[in-house]
Amino acid sequence: MMTTDAHRAIDAVWRAESARLIAGLARMVRDVGLAEELAQDALVIALEKWPATGVPDNPGAWLMATAKHRAIDRLRRGKLQQRKHEELGHELEREWADATAKLEARMDDDIGDDLLRLVFTACHPLLSMDARVALTLRLLGGLTTDEIARAYLVAESTVAQRIVRAKRTLSEAQVPFEVPRGEELHERIGAVLGVIYLIFNEGYSATAGDDLMRPALCEEALRLGRLVAELTPAEPEAHGLVALMEIQASRARARTGSDGKPVLLPDQDRSLWDRQSIERGFAALARAYALGGAAGPYVMQGAIAACHARAAKAEDTDWHTIAAMYAALAQMAPSPVVQLNRAVAVSMASGAAAGLELVDTLVAEPALAQYHLLPSVRGDLLFKLGRHREAQAEFTRAASLTRNSREQDFLLDRARLCEQGNAPLE
User: What is the CA radius of gyration of the chain?
Assistant: First the structure.
Protein backbone atom coordinates (compact mmCIF):
# COMPACT_ATOMS: atom_id res chain seq x y z
CA MET A 1 0.00 0.00 0.00
CA MET A 2 1.32 3.47 -0.85
CA THR A 3 2.33 5.49 2.22
CA THR A 4 -0.16 8.31 1.52
CA ASP A 5 -3.00 5.83 1.03
CA ALA A 6 -2.06 4.01 4.23
CA HIS A 7 -1.93 7.24 6.22
CA ARG A 8 -5.30 8.27 4.84
CA ALA A 9 -6.73 4.88 5.84
CA ILE A 10 -5.15 5.11 9.30
CA ASP A 11 -6.66 8.57 9.80
CA ALA A 12 -10.12 7.23 8.89
CA VAL A 13 -9.68 4.26 11.23
CA TRP A 14 -8.56 6.54 14.04
CA ARG A 15 -11.61 8.78 13.64
CA ALA A 16 -13.88 5.77 13.76
CA GLU A 17 -12.16 3.75 16.47
CA SER A 18 -10.31 6.15 18.79
CA ALA A 19 -13.22 6.76 21.17
CA ARG A 20 -13.88 3.03 21.65
CA LEU A 21 -10.16 2.39 22.00
CA ILE A 22 -9.64 5.08 24.64
CA ALA A 23 -12.83 4.05 26.45
CA GLY A 24 -11.74 0.42 26.70
CA LEU A 25 -8.26 1.38 27.84
CA ALA A 26 -9.58 3.88 30.40
CA ARG A 27 -11.61 1.13 32.03
CA MET A 28 -8.53 -1.04 32.08
CA VAL A 29 -6.08 1.49 33.54
CA ARG A 30 -8.60 3.73 35.34
CA ASP A 31 -6.94 6.91 34.00
CA VAL A 32 -8.20 8.83 30.94
CA GLY A 33 -4.86 10.54 30.37
CA LEU A 34 -2.91 7.29 30.42
CA ALA A 35 -5.55 5.64 28.23
CA GLU A 36 -5.07 8.31 25.57
CA GLU A 37 -1.28 7.90 25.75
CA LEU A 38 -1.62 4.15 25.21
CA ALA A 39 -4.00 4.70 22.29
CA GLN A 40 -1.55 7.16 20.74
CA ASP A 41 1.26 4.61 21.19
CA ALA A 42 -0.81 2.08 19.24
CA LEU A 43 -1.45 4.68 16.54
CA VAL A 44 2.29 5.37 16.20
CA ILE A 45 2.96 1.64 15.80
CA ALA A 46 0.22 1.46 13.15
CA LEU A 47 1.80 4.38 11.28
CA GLU A 48 5.10 2.48 11.29
CA LYS A 49 3.73 -0.93 10.28
CA TRP A 50 0.60 -0.54 8.17
CA PRO A 51 2.20 1.22 5.18
CA ALA A 52 4.29 -1.94 4.71
CA THR A 53 1.84 -4.63 5.82
CA GLY A 54 -1.46 -3.06 4.80
CA VAL A 55 -4.42 -2.16 7.02
CA PRO A 56 -5.60 -5.24 8.99
CA ASP A 57 -9.03 -6.72 8.31
CA ASN A 58 -10.14 -5.60 11.78
CA PRO A 59 -8.09 -2.45 12.45
CA GLY A 60 -9.96 -1.56 15.64
CA ALA A 61 -9.15 -4.92 17.20
CA TRP A 62 -5.52 -4.60 16.07
CA LEU A 63 -5.20 -1.19 17.74
CA MET A 64 -6.86 -2.46 20.91
CA ALA A 65 -4.59 -5.51 21.13
CA THR A 66 -1.51 -3.39 20.54
CA ALA A 67 -2.55 -0.80 23.12
CA LYS A 68 -3.39 -3.53 25.63
CA HIS A 69 0.09 -5.02 25.23
CA ARG A 70 1.58 -1.58 25.81
CA ALA A 71 -0.53 -1.24 28.98
CA ILE A 72 0.64 -4.63 30.22
CA ASP A 73 4.26 -3.69 29.47
CA ARG A 74 3.85 -0.49 31.49
CA LEU A 75 2.34 -2.37 34.39
CA ARG A 76 5.12 -4.89 34.27
CA ARG A 77 7.79 -2.19 34.25
CA GLY A 78 6.05 -0.55 37.20
CA LYS A 79 6.02 -3.81 39.13
CA LEU A 80 9.68 -4.44 38.36
CA GLN A 81 10.60 -0.95 39.47
CA GLN A 82 8.72 -1.37 42.74
CA ARG A 83 10.52 -4.63 43.40
CA LYS A 84 13.93 -3.76 41.94
CA HIS A 85 15.61 -3.94 45.33
CA GLU A 86 13.86 -7.18 46.20
CA GLU A 87 14.49 -10.68 45.06
CA LEU A 88 12.41 -11.40 41.98
CA GLY A 89 10.94 -14.85 42.11
CA HIS A 90 7.76 -16.86 41.99
CA GLU A 91 5.81 -14.38 44.10
CA LEU A 92 6.31 -11.59 41.57
CA GLU A 93 5.38 -13.93 38.72
CA ARG A 94 2.14 -14.84 40.50
CA GLU A 95 1.37 -11.14 41.16
CA TRP A 96 2.03 -10.36 37.50
CA ALA A 97 -0.15 -13.22 36.27
CA ASP A 98 -3.02 -12.12 38.53
CA ALA A 99 -2.74 -8.48 37.43
CA THR A 100 -2.63 -9.43 33.76
CA ALA A 101 -5.68 -11.67 34.12
CA LYS A 102 -7.62 -8.86 35.81
CA LEU A 103 -6.70 -6.38 33.08
CA GLU A 104 -7.69 -8.78 30.32
CA ALA A 105 -10.98 -9.52 32.07
CA ARG A 106 -11.76 -5.81 32.12
CA MET A 107 -11.20 -5.65 28.39
CA ASP A 108 -13.99 -8.14 27.82
CA ASP A 109 -16.75 -5.90 29.27
CA ASP A 110 -19.38 -4.32 27.06
CA ILE A 111 -17.89 -1.62 24.81
CA GLY A 112 -21.09 0.45 24.92
CA ASP A 113 -20.71 0.85 28.67
CA ASP A 114 -17.12 1.96 28.12
CA LEU A 115 -18.18 4.72 25.73
CA LEU A 116 -20.85 5.95 28.09
CA ARG A 117 -18.31 6.06 30.92
CA LEU A 118 -15.96 8.06 28.70
CA VAL A 119 -18.74 10.54 27.84
CA PHE A 120 -19.49 11.18 31.50
CA THR A 121 -15.80 11.42 32.39
CA ALA A 122 -14.98 13.92 29.63
CA CYS A 123 -17.98 16.05 30.64
CA HIS A 124 -17.36 15.87 34.40
CA PRO A 125 -18.58 18.95 36.34
CA LEU A 126 -15.15 19.30 37.97
CA LEU A 127 -13.97 20.70 34.64
CA SER A 128 -14.73 24.12 33.19
CA MET A 129 -17.04 24.18 30.19
CA ASP A 130 -14.14 25.07 27.87
CA ALA A 131 -12.19 22.08 29.21
CA ARG A 132 -15.18 19.74 28.83
CA VAL A 133 -15.66 20.79 25.22
CA ALA A 134 -11.98 20.40 24.35
CA LEU A 135 -11.64 17.04 26.12
CA THR A 136 -14.85 15.70 24.57
CA LEU A 137 -13.74 16.65 21.06
CA ARG A 138 -10.32 15.17 21.73
CA LEU A 139 -11.34 11.86 23.32
CA LEU A 140 -14.72 11.19 21.70
CA GLY A 141 -14.35 13.11 18.45
CA GLY A 142 -10.78 12.08 17.73
CA LEU A 143 -9.89 15.67 16.77
CA THR A 144 -6.33 16.90 17.12
CA THR A 145 -5.52 19.94 19.25
CA ASP A 146 -4.83 21.84 16.02
CA GLU A 147 -8.27 20.97 14.63
CA ILE A 148 -10.00 22.03 17.86
CA ALA A 149 -7.99 25.26 17.97
CA ARG A 150 -8.88 26.10 14.36
CA ALA A 151 -12.55 25.35 15.00
CA TYR A 152 -12.68 27.75 17.93
CA LEU A 153 -10.15 30.27 16.60
CA VAL A 154 -7.88 30.03 19.63
CA ALA A 155 -4.19 29.20 19.91
CA GLU A 156 -3.28 25.53 19.69
CA SER A 157 -1.26 25.94 22.89
CA THR A 158 -4.41 27.13 24.67
CA VAL A 159 -6.34 24.02 23.65
CA ALA A 160 -3.40 21.79 24.57
CA GLN A 161 -3.21 23.37 28.03
CA ARG A 162 -6.95 22.92 28.57
CA ILE A 163 -6.71 19.24 27.68
CA VAL A 164 -3.62 18.60 29.81
CA ARG A 165 -5.14 20.38 32.81
CA ALA A 166 -8.44 18.57 32.36
CA LYS A 167 -6.77 15.15 32.36
CA ARG A 168 -4.63 16.14 35.34
CA THR A 169 -7.69 17.37 37.25
CA LEU A 170 -9.53 14.10 36.65
CA SER A 171 -6.48 12.07 37.66
CA GLU A 172 -5.70 14.05 40.81
CA ALA A 173 -9.34 13.96 41.91
CA GLN A 174 -9.37 10.21 41.21
CA VAL A 175 -12.64 10.62 39.34
CA PRO A 176 -14.06 7.11 38.93
CA PHE A 177 -14.44 5.87 35.37
CA GLU A 178 -18.11 5.00 35.70
CA VAL A 179 -21.63 5.99 34.77
CA PRO A 180 -23.29 7.82 37.69
CA ARG A 181 -26.47 6.40 39.12
CA GLY A 182 -29.79 7.63 40.44
CA GLU A 183 -30.24 11.37 40.82
CA GLU A 184 -26.61 12.02 39.92
CA LEU A 185 -27.17 10.35 36.54
CA HIS A 186 -30.13 12.65 35.83
CA GLU A 187 -28.06 15.71 36.76
CA ARG A 188 -24.99 14.65 34.80
CA ILE A 189 -26.82 13.70 31.58
CA GLY A 190 -27.88 17.34 31.40
CA ALA A 191 -24.22 18.39 31.55
CA VAL A 192 -23.30 15.91 28.82
CA LEU A 193 -26.08 17.11 26.52
CA GLY A 194 -25.13 20.71 27.30
CA VAL A 195 -21.58 20.13 26.03
CA ILE A 196 -22.85 18.56 22.81
CA TYR A 197 -25.38 21.39 22.35
CA LEU A 198 -22.60 23.97 22.82
CA ILE A 199 -20.39 22.24 20.22
CA PHE A 200 -23.27 22.15 17.74
CA ASN A 201 -24.18 25.81 18.28
CA GLU A 202 -20.61 26.92 17.66
CA GLY A 203 -20.62 24.94 14.43
CA TYR A 204 -24.04 26.22 13.37
CA SER A 205 -23.37 29.92 14.09
CA ALA A 206 -19.64 30.56 14.48
CA THR A 207 -18.98 33.29 17.04
CA ALA A 208 -15.95 34.62 15.16
CA GLY A 209 -14.01 34.30 11.91
CA ASP A 210 -14.85 34.49 8.24
CA ASP A 211 -17.36 31.63 7.98
CA LEU A 212 -20.94 31.67 9.16
CA MET A 213 -20.83 27.94 9.89
CA ARG A 214 -18.22 25.34 10.83
CA PRO A 215 -19.76 22.16 9.42
CA ALA A 216 -17.16 19.86 11.00
CA LEU A 217 -18.29 20.89 14.48
CA CYS A 218 -21.94 20.34 13.58
CA GLU A 219 -21.06 16.87 12.29
CA GLU A 220 -19.10 16.02 15.45
CA ALA A 221 -21.93 17.22 17.69
CA LEU A 222 -24.44 15.16 15.71
CA ARG A 223 -22.22 12.09 15.90
CA LEU A 224 -21.79 12.52 19.67
CA GLY A 225 -25.50 13.20 20.14
CA ARG A 226 -26.47 10.06 18.24
CA LEU A 227 -23.95 8.08 20.29
CA VAL A 228 -25.35 9.32 23.61
CA ALA A 229 -28.92 8.69 22.44
CA GLU A 230 -27.96 5.16 21.44
CA LEU A 231 -26.25 4.55 24.78
CA THR A 232 -29.14 6.05 26.82
CA PRO A 233 -32.17 4.87 24.83
CA ALA A 234 -34.66 5.68 27.59
CA GLU A 235 -33.54 9.33 27.94
CA PRO A 236 -36.02 11.53 26.03
CA GLU A 237 -33.84 14.65 26.19
CA ALA A 238 -31.02 12.85 24.34
CA HIS A 239 -33.42 12.07 21.49
CA GLY A 240 -34.80 15.61 21.68
CA LEU A 241 -31.32 17.07 21.22
CA VAL A 242 -30.68 14.78 18.26
CA ALA A 243 -33.99 15.91 16.73
CA LEU A 244 -33.06 19.56 17.19
CA MET A 245 -29.58 19.14 15.67
CA GLU A 246 -30.79 17.03 12.73
CA ILE A 247 -33.45 19.54 11.76
CA GLN A 248 -31.22 22.58 12.26
CA ALA A 249 -28.39 20.96 10.29
CA SER A 250 -30.81 20.21 7.44
CA ARG A 251 -30.79 23.94 6.57
CA ALA A 252 -27.02 24.20 6.15
CA ARG A 253 -26.94 24.59 2.36
CA ALA A 254 -29.65 27.26 2.41
CA ARG A 255 -28.19 29.42 5.19
CA THR A 256 -25.64 31.28 3.08
CA GLY A 257 -25.77 32.88 -0.35
CA SER A 258 -23.17 32.61 -3.10
CA ASP A 259 -21.31 35.52 -1.45
CA GLY A 260 -21.12 33.64 1.86
CA LYS A 261 -23.42 36.10 3.63
CA PRO A 262 -26.29 34.84 5.82
CA VAL A 263 -29.70 34.12 4.33
CA LEU A 264 -32.38 34.54 6.99
CA LEU A 265 -34.93 31.80 7.54
CA PRO A 266 -37.86 33.45 5.67
CA ASP A 267 -35.69 33.93 2.57
CA GLN A 268 -34.13 30.48 2.43
CA ASP A 269 -34.68 28.22 -0.57
CA ARG A 270 -36.40 25.36 1.21
CA SER A 271 -35.73 23.00 -1.67
CA LEU A 272 -32.12 23.04 -0.44
CA TRP A 273 -33.11 21.71 2.97
CA ASP A 274 -31.95 18.13 3.50
CA ARG A 275 -35.16 16.10 3.71
CA GLN A 276 -33.41 12.97 4.97
CA SER A 277 -31.96 14.90 7.88
CA ILE A 278 -35.41 16.35 8.61
CA GLU A 279 -36.98 12.88 8.58
CA ARG A 280 -34.30 11.63 10.99
CA GLY A 281 -35.14 14.59 13.21
CA PHE A 282 -38.86 13.80 13.09
CA ALA A 283 -38.12 10.18 14.03
CA ALA A 284 -35.95 11.22 16.98
CA LEU A 285 -38.64 13.64 18.14
CA ALA A 286 -41.31 10.94 17.93
CA ARG A 287 -39.10 8.67 20.01
CA ALA A 288 -38.68 11.40 22.63
CA TYR A 289 -42.45 11.93 22.80
CA ALA A 290 -43.02 8.18 23.14
CA LEU A 291 -40.74 8.25 26.19
CA GLY A 292 -42.82 11.01 27.78
CA GLY A 293 -40.32 13.78 27.14
CA ALA A 294 -42.63 16.56 25.96
CA ALA A 295 -41.72 18.73 28.97
CA GLY A 296 -37.96 18.67 28.31
CA PRO A 297 -36.20 21.78 26.95
CA TYR A 298 -34.32 19.93 24.18
CA VAL A 299 -37.49 18.13 23.13
CA MET A 300 -39.34 21.46 23.06
CA GLN A 301 -36.61 23.07 20.93
CA GLY A 302 -36.74 20.06 18.63
CA ALA A 303 -40.51 20.54 18.34
CA ILE A 304 -40.02 24.22 17.43
CA ALA A 305 -37.50 23.26 14.74
CA ALA A 306 -39.94 20.62 13.46
CA CYS A 307 -42.68 23.23 13.22
CA HIS A 308 -40.46 25.28 10.90
CA ALA A 309 -39.51 22.17 8.90
CA ARG A 310 -43.16 21.27 8.23
CA ALA A 311 -43.81 24.61 6.49
CA ALA A 312 -43.31 24.16 2.75
CA LYS A 313 -43.16 27.95 2.35
CA ALA A 314 -42.15 30.64 4.85
CA GLU A 315 -45.68 32.06 4.85
CA ASP A 316 -47.04 28.66 5.89
CA THR A 317 -45.16 28.78 9.20
CA ASP A 318 -47.43 28.40 12.23
CA TRP A 319 -45.99 31.30 14.21
CA HIS A 320 -48.76 31.25 16.83
CA THR A 321 -47.81 27.68 17.78
CA ILE A 322 -44.11 28.54 17.77
CA ALA A 323 -44.71 31.57 20.01
CA ALA A 324 -46.67 29.36 22.42
CA MET A 325 -43.86 26.80 22.41
CA TYR A 326 -41.29 29.48 23.24
CA ALA A 327 -43.49 30.65 26.09
CA ALA A 328 -43.55 27.09 27.43
CA LEU A 329 -39.79 26.78 26.93
CA ALA A 330 -39.25 30.00 28.88
CA GLN A 331 -41.13 28.42 31.79
CA MET A 332 -39.16 25.14 31.81
CA ALA A 333 -35.73 26.64 31.00
CA PRO A 334 -35.76 30.39 31.77
CA SER A 335 -33.28 32.30 29.61
CA PRO A 336 -33.13 35.81 28.11
CA VAL A 337 -32.13 34.24 24.77
CA VAL A 338 -35.29 32.13 24.83
CA GLN A 339 -37.29 35.28 25.60
CA LEU A 340 -35.68 37.03 22.64
CA ASN A 341 -36.62 34.13 20.36
CA ARG A 342 -40.13 34.25 21.76
CA ALA A 343 -40.30 37.97 20.94
CA VAL A 344 -39.38 37.22 17.31
CA ALA A 345 -42.10 34.57 17.12
CA VAL A 346 -44.65 36.94 18.68
CA SER A 347 -43.72 39.63 16.17
CA MET A 348 -44.36 37.20 13.31
CA ALA A 349 -47.63 36.02 14.82
CA SER A 350 -49.04 39.29 16.16
CA GLY A 351 -47.10 42.11 14.54
CA ALA A 352 -43.86 44.05 15.00
CA ALA A 353 -45.25 46.28 17.76
CA ALA A 354 -46.10 43.27 19.95
CA GLY A 355 -42.64 41.82 19.37
CA LEU A 356 -40.87 45.11 20.10
CA GLU A 357 -42.73 45.44 23.38
CA LEU A 358 -41.22 42.14 24.51
CA VAL A 359 -37.76 42.96 23.14
CA ASP A 360 -37.70 46.27 25.03
CA THR A 361 -38.09 44.41 28.32
CA LEU A 362 -34.76 42.69 27.54
CA VAL A 363 -32.69 45.78 26.70
CA ALA A 364 -31.40 46.14 30.28
CA GLU A 365 -30.76 42.39 30.67
CA PRO A 366 -27.04 42.05 31.67
CA ALA A 367 -26.70 38.65 29.99
CA LEU A 368 -27.59 40.22 26.62
CA ALA A 369 -25.42 43.35 26.95
CA GLN A 370 -22.89 42.06 24.39
CA TYR A 371 -25.25 39.77 22.46
CA HIS A 372 -25.39 41.09 18.91
CA LEU A 373 -28.73 39.48 18.09
CA LEU A 374 -30.59 41.71 20.58
CA PRO A 375 -29.95 44.96 18.65
CA SER A 376 -30.27 43.03 15.38
CA VAL A 377 -33.79 41.87 16.25
CA ARG A 378 -34.70 45.26 17.65
CA GLY A 379 -33.46 46.95 14.47
CA ASP A 380 -35.59 44.67 12.31
CA LEU A 381 -38.73 45.40 14.31
CA LEU A 382 -38.06 49.15 14.38
CA PHE A 383 -37.69 49.20 10.59
CA LYS A 384 -40.96 47.35 10.13
CA LEU A 385 -42.58 50.07 12.21
CA GLY A 386 -41.09 52.79 9.97
CA ARG A 387 -38.56 53.98 12.58
CA HIS A 388 -35.62 53.84 10.16
CA ARG A 389 -33.14 56.07 11.99
CA GLU A 390 -33.48 54.06 15.20
CA ALA A 391 -33.24 50.83 13.23
CA GLN A 392 -30.02 51.99 11.57
CA ALA A 393 -28.45 52.65 14.96
CA GLU A 394 -29.43 49.20 16.18
CA PHE A 395 -27.98 47.41 13.13
CA THR A 396 -24.76 49.42 13.45
CA ARG A 397 -24.49 48.45 17.11
CA ALA A 398 -25.16 44.80 16.29
CA ALA A 399 -22.38 44.86 13.68
CA SER A 400 -19.97 46.27 16.28
CA LEU A 401 -20.74 43.43 18.70
CA THR A 402 -20.32 40.42 16.42
CA ARG A 403 -16.87 38.90 15.81
CA ASN A 404 -18.05 37.01 12.73
CA SER A 405 -17.09 38.94 9.61
CA ARG A 406 -19.94 37.50 7.51
CA GLU A 407 -22.55 38.60 10.03
CA GLN A 408 -20.85 41.97 10.42
CA ASP A 409 -20.99 42.69 6.68
CA PHE A 410 -24.62 41.56 6.59
CA LEU A 411 -25.62 43.84 9.47
CA LEU A 412 -23.81 46.83 8.00
CA ASP A 413 -25.68 46.22 4.73
CA ARG A 414 -28.94 46.38 6.66
CA ALA A 415 -27.86 49.62 8.32
CA ARG A 416 -27.14 51.17 4.91
CA LEU A 417 -30.53 50.07 3.59
CA CYS A 418 -32.17 51.75 6.58
CA GLU A 419 -30.38 54.97 5.69
CA GLN A 420 -31.76 54.72 2.17
CA GLY A 421 -35.24 53.97 3.49
CA ASN A 422 -35.41 50.59 1.76
CA ALA A 423 -36.79 47.38 3.20
CA PRO A 424 -34.35 45.41 5.38
CA LEU A 425 -32.96 42.08 4.24
CA GLU A 426 -35.12 39.38 5.79
Answer: 25
